[in-house]
Design goal:
- A hairpin with a 5-residue loop joins β13 and β14.
- The strands form five sheets. Strands 9-10-12-11-15-19-16-17 form an eight-stranded mixed β-sheet, sandwiched between helices. The protein has a six-stranded mixed β-sheet with strand order 1-8-6-2-4-3, sandwiched between helices. It has a three-stranded mixed β-sheet with strand order 13-14-18, covered by helices on one side.
- α10 runs parallel beside α13.
- The protein has two domains: 2-158, Leucine Aminopeptidase, subunit E, domain 1; 176-489, Aminopeptidase (3-Layer(aba) Sandwich), CATH 3.40.630.10.
- The protein has 492 residues and is an alpha/beta fold.
- The chain has helices spanning 30-38, 42-48, 86-102, 122-136, 164-188, 196-209, 220-226, 229-235, 289-304, 349-361, 376-382, 394-406, 440-449, 480-489, and strands at 2-5, 18-23, 59-62, 73-77, 83-84, 107-111, 116-117, 155-158, 213-218, 243-250, 259-269, 309-319, 330-333, 339-342, 367-372, 387-391, 411-413, 431-432, 457-461, 467-468, 474-475.
- Bound molecules: ligand BES, manganese (II) ion and zinc ion.
- Residues 266, 269, 287, 348-349 line the site of zinc ion.
Length: 492
Amino acid sequence: MQISLKSYKDVAAIRSDCLILTTDAKLSDSAAKKIDDACGGALSKIIKRGEFAAKLGDTAYLPVCDGIKADRILLIGTGEAATLSPADFDKMVTAGIRALNQSRCQDACWVSEGLDVADKEDRWQWQRLAQLLELASYRYTKTLSKPKPPMTLKRLSIAASNNAANKAAVAHGSAIAKGTNVAKELGNLPANICTPSYLATQARALGRRFENTSVTVLDEKKMQQLGMGSLLSVSAGSDQPAKLIVIEYNGGKKGDAPHALVGKGITFDTGGISLKPGAKMDEMKYDMCGAASVIGTMEAICQIAPKVNVVAVVAAAENMPSGRATKPGDVVTSMSGQTIEVLNTDAEGRLVLCDALTYVGKYKPASTIDIATLTGACVVALGKHAAGLFSNDDSFAAELLAAGQTAQDRAWHMPLWDDYQPQLDSNFADIANIGGPEAGSVTAACFLSRFTKDQRWAHLDIAGAAWNGGANKGATGRPVALLCQYLLSKAS
Ligand code: BES
Ligand code: MN
Ligand code: ZN
């Protein structure tokens, strides 16, 4: 999608396949008013007749008339409120995009002169518009012999000054959406394509496309040498070798501590010997969505090129049962030296993450965030609307909550109290990999906390947020927006 900014003098003189106007029923928006005047009150007429009520998200096409240069006019209702909430703005834009998709126009011009979004400057609207449009252009095509046609719209111009701040807003919105789409695509790909080796190949390709970015992939032999017995216990039953993928982006000063991202990349989770039931097991191809969000975030960050250092680690493995698979009761030794009793081979995410977290510790990160589709319990607790946020530092948690709020990609703070830790006691190892039926998402986070004691660390459980089921089944690309928002706030 090509998105540009263009100032204009006379809205009636704008040449475009489609002029998009936002308005309430009173034509408070001055551009809408001018168009109404230019075409002899045609707009007031359809409002008066009740054909267009201008409620939030209502859309209608205004028939062409002589007074204007655009081929058609798309009206989007803003409702009666003088100020929209960010969520209302999204709802309105989404309705507009849906209507645009029905007209087959290739370019459009967005003109809104009176729209106010609570606590946001105008450029926030341009960023969000760019982001939503780019997100809407995503189509899954890879394994379809008759894919859905791409979006007809190719270019959007936004009627606003082409100054540096506005340009940056549009660029950020587009880049974040492109990163989100990368995460969606990796999530949606089936597990027979998207293997740990495939993720490594994608990461290497990303490294080649951008300056300041380098990618290293550790194979099983190297991980063995580093003592990653926990991570390797997960891939033991699979014919697909595990990969530890490291992406370093150096946009900041040399020597500045990087911010670290760590993604759970289980490319398929059968549960292993603790085999999952068959229903919906296909959805466990999404068990690498944490990794996908990390790679998507790096895509966006590389495109935006902020002055910050970031190190991203993806722990990629496939969890399969076989004669070589890890068995319940097996004890493995993690890179940290702590021994782990694997009471349930389906609690594998924490087993790959703990070694990846220990590994990233050697970078002495300024902050560390791991992202994982870690527990069904988190879906029970929060559903799909919020990611579960756990942290060993309340001020860090507050920063991430705020980033999620701003990016409209929200998380919810969950407890990580010591009271829960004894649930992980084991008679045969330093720690058990499950903590019983109570507070499953909390004990999973408690497990990870044993490996991040010396880091400013947070864990995002995205088991509910990472994909949608039902008719719109597909990956959401969350929480790329939250992560980008946070990392950009760290740029100097
Ligand atoms: N990947 C799953 C968690 C999951 C399940 C995410 C369903 C989204 C939807 C994870 O590896 C897992 O199996 N967790 C177990 C942990 C349990 C054995 C302690 C779970 O949640 O049941
Ligand atoms: Mn599992
Ligand atoms: Zn899993």
